[in-house]
Amino acid sequence: MAPRGRVELRRIEDKASRQVRFSKRRAGLFKKAFELALLCDAEVALLVFSPGGKLYEYSSSSIEDTYDRYHQFAGAGRKVNGHNNDNRDVAASDLQSRLKEIATWSKQNNAEESDANELEKLEELLTNALRNTKAKKMLAKENNGGAGASTSSQMLLYSAERATDK
């Protein structure tokens, strides 16, 4: 039996095919999240926004509880050299406010009914938030990581470049 070849990942041009693929992959992702929670007794929260802006969510317990737990966990690693990094706190609150703004916009507006300018603004907002998050994550790893930090930084930069190229 011949080995399976790799399939090139690229955007699906046909809108109907893309929607069908999204639905199937979303269902598979939610199934995996459910299985992970059930089989491994893991706490799982999953949020997916469709290309049309519709929100799909799954949580093994409560999304709010999982989100709060994540912030407690992330907050424990914020001490650098014995003191809190105020810049990181400001950046985290800025990012959190941006995410709330995006979620509010998504709930209030149906993306399919939005004009191109509004969608471009949203895309720019998301791209900037993603770029800032990756840069802050890289800096945090460099501050806390020690010897392996440069490799992690290079990998994060590479993934950020790939994300912005798409």
TrEMBL record:
Q: Which InterPro entries match?
A: MADS-box/MEF2_TF (IPR050142), MEF2-like_N (IPR033896), TF_MADSbox (IPR002100), TF_MADSbox_sf (IPR036879)
Can you provide one Gene Ontology molecular function annotated for this UniProt record? DNA-binding transcription factor activity, RNA polymerase II-specific
Q: Where in the cell is it found?
A: Nucleus
Which residue spans adopt a coiled-coil conformation according to this UniProt entry? 102-136
Q: Which UniProt keywords apply?
A: Coiled coil, DNA-binding, Nucleus, Transcription, Transcription regulation
**GO-annotated cellular components:** nucleus
PROSITE patterns listed in its UniProt record? MADS_BOX_2 (PS50066)
Query: The MADS-box domain covers which part of the protein?
Result: 2-62
Q: Which domain of life is it from?
A: Eukaryota
Region listing for Disordered, in residue ranges: 141-166
Q: Does the keyword DNA-binding apply?
A: yes
Task: Supply the PANTHER family for this chain.
Answer: SERUM RESPONSE FACTOR HOMOLOG
Q: What is the protein name for this chain?
A: MADS transcription factor
Upper classification of the organism: Eukaryota, Viridiplantae, Streptophyta, Embryophyta, Tracheophyta
Gene name linked to the record: MADS69
